[in-house]
Design goal:
Number of helices: 2
Number of domains: 2
Helix content: 40-55%
Low-confidence stretches: none
Radius of gyration: 31 Å
Shape: rod-shaped
Number of strands: 4
Structural class: alpha+beta
Order of helices and strands: HEEEHE
Strand content: 15-25%
Length: 100
Amino acid sequence: MRGFATSLLLIIGIIAVIGMVAYIVLAKSHTSSDNVTASAPVTAIVSTKDFAPGLPMSQKTTILIQTNDSSEIKYIVPTSQVDTYSKSLPEGYRVVSKTP
């Protein structure tokens, strides 16, 4: 009877060790796939400010501004005032593109 109990405990111990090793392997492979997903490029949301809401789009220019923290803001301004808005940007801000 004593030999049976020892054998039973040994079998349970082996099963527990195999279960732990399998858990570690599966957890590590799951973490690796999460890292691949996390490193995928993220599309930034660009805020838009329309400074000429009463004008039709044919009379406006869209200026994409990059801020000093690398985020982007889209300004929609009257075409005649593009230079004024571009020159009055805060320090560290820069014009990335202009589209009529």
